[in-house]
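Troubleshooting: if your tokenizer reports a length mismatch, compare your output against this known-good record of 102 residues.
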Amino acid sequence: MNMDEHKIEAQSQPGAVSPPVCAFCAHWTPERGRHCSAFPVMLIPAQVWDGFSFHFTPVGGEQRDTDGKPIVFKLHPEVKLAAIQEANPALAKALRSGWARQ
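Known-good structure output:
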């Protein structure tokens, strides 16, 4: 699936906004719906899914990676900043500012 399809699928998910940060995250795929590597059992929290948090820091309930750190947003390797700028300018600005752990 290319990133345009990934983004379109994300926008079609119930409750999604333009598109959620999840659409650009390496831990999420559209087939998982409101679940991802960070939230494999519980739903991705509304504050993340609805665009109120970029999930650069834990929001609670995340799974942990092999180093014991909570799984948070990680930019998908196929996503270009220009695509994020067009779809979600606030996220692009935050990424340019270095807020996300890469």
